[in-house]
Amino acid sequence: MRLRLCGTDDVADDGMLQVKVDGHAPFAVYKVHGAYFVTEDTCTHGKASLADEGELEEYLITCTWHDGKFDIRTGEACAMPCTKAILTFPVTVAEDAVWVDVG
Ligand code: FES
User: Fold this and answer.
1) Separation of CA 82 and ligand 1 centre (Å)
2) Residue 46 beta carbon below 6 angstroms from any ligand 1 atom
3) What pLDDT digit, counting tens, does each position of 52-86 carry?
4) CA distances from 13 to 8, 42, 70, 103 (A)
5) 7-28 pLDDT, tens per residue?
6) How far is C-alpha 83 from the geometric centre of its chain's CA atoms?
7) What angle is formed at CA 25 by the lines to CA 20 and CA 27, rounded to 5 degrees?
């Protein structure tokens, strides 16, 4: 199933946006060097919103609650206390919007 998350202009360059869609856990949409990435928004360590409370530097999102880090390209947990990856989703850009495939 493909979901429209937001318009391409809704995400600032090197920024991120939390998107809620009924029936799904919140998504975080990132734009880095003109490319879009989408992960689940909730940190796997606690309940922090990565898009609202995290800090993005290149492809690393830092959860500011306890300084855990994830690679937004793969979801890999890159810094303690986070050990479990976040989910990532295949992204398509079409019709001036960001879409994800949620299977
Ligand atoms: Fe994200 Fe603890 S809630 S690092």
Assistant:
1) 7
2) yes
3) 999 999 999 999 999 999 999 999 999 999 999 99
4) 10, 21, 19, 27
5) 999 999 999 999 999 999 999 9
6) 17
7) 55
